[in-house]
Amino acid sequence: MARSLKKGPYIDQKLLEKIKKAKPGEVIKTWARDATITPEMVGFVFGVHNGKEFVLVKVTEEMVGHKLGEFSPTTKFFKHGGKMQRALEQEAAKKEALKLKE
Question: What is the reported pTM?
Answer without folding.
Answer: 0.71
